[in-house]
Write a structure and sequence with these properties.
It contains five helices and five strands, in the order E-E-E-H-E-H-H-H-E-H. The chain has one domain: Nucleotidyltransferase, domain 5. The N and C termini lie far apart (38 Å). The protein is 43% helix and 26% strand. By secondary structure, it is an alpha/beta fold.
Length: 143
Amino acid sequence: MQDDRSVIYTDGACLGNPGPGGWAWACEGGESDSGAEPHTTNQRMELNAVLRAVLSNEGPLEIVSDSAYVVNCFKQSWWKGWDARSWRNAKGQPVANRDLWEPLILEFKERKNISFRWVKGHSGDPMNEMVDHLANLAAQGVA
């Protein structure tokens, strides 16, 4: 990790899946944001948290997430296969949440200064616990 990189933690929550959901992101320096949708899925909220964090923060970023779905897309370059297969997954099905993936991947490709790190959820990491709490509060607010 580069010293000038902002570290941003993200999380999504869903009360039922699908159900009311919330997303949240927070910087180690204190800035944060959260929001909710009345009927969504946990994966959409995880992805929405990352997209909103990236769009809200300029400069080099390290996104820390407990979502293997999000982190592996970039660590294992799933997005390259989706692009090569016209937004079809390895099983030939349309990629879920394409409306959120496309702008996130575009930012990732254009900026070239965003990295991803996975953290185990509910393992005591203070920032991960904080964004989990914020995402759950947001989800409860629309439940």
